[in-house]
Amino acid sequence: MSTPRTPDAPGRYIPVAVRRYVLARDGYTCHYCGVPATDLDHIMPWGQGGSHDPHNLVTCCTRCNSVAGDRVFGELSEKEEYMVRRLGEMGAWDDSVGD
Q1: Strand partners, 29
Q2: What CATH number does residue 60 fall under?
Q3: In a domain, 22, yes or no
């Protein structure tokens, strides 16, 4: 049985080189809503065993990242469908999203 990851565990932070690579790869644009962005989202959440590998990361705005939370999805397409539905329900630029 593995030890669960906690927010203060070593390795929590994405290495700078990986962060820069993913942001540049994605054009500093949120994968979910298309606005300029500087955050990253784990497709498989880090807290659930996901890695900091670039294939597990997408550029994400702060609001979309807070909506995504620590939910686990089998594939990126499932997460995209969830995000489109939730953002539509909440109003993508409603000031309460992510607060």
Answers
A1: 36
A2: 1.10.30.50
A3: yes
- Report the candidate in 41, 38, 50 with the shortest Cα–Cα distance to residue 69: 41
16 close to 36: Cβ distance less than 8 angstroms: no
69's torsion region: left (phi>0), alpha (psi -120 to 50) or beta?
Answer: left
Q: Are 90 and 63 in contact (CB under 8 A)?
A: no
pTM over 0.85: no
Is residue 97 domain-resident? no
Please write the tens of the pLDDT for every residue from 48-90. 888 999 999 999 998 888 887 777 776 677 777 887 777 777 6
CB-based contacts of 71, cutoff 8 Å, min separation 6: 45, 79, 82
Q: What is the dihedral of CA 30, 90, 78, 67, to 10 degrees?
A: 60
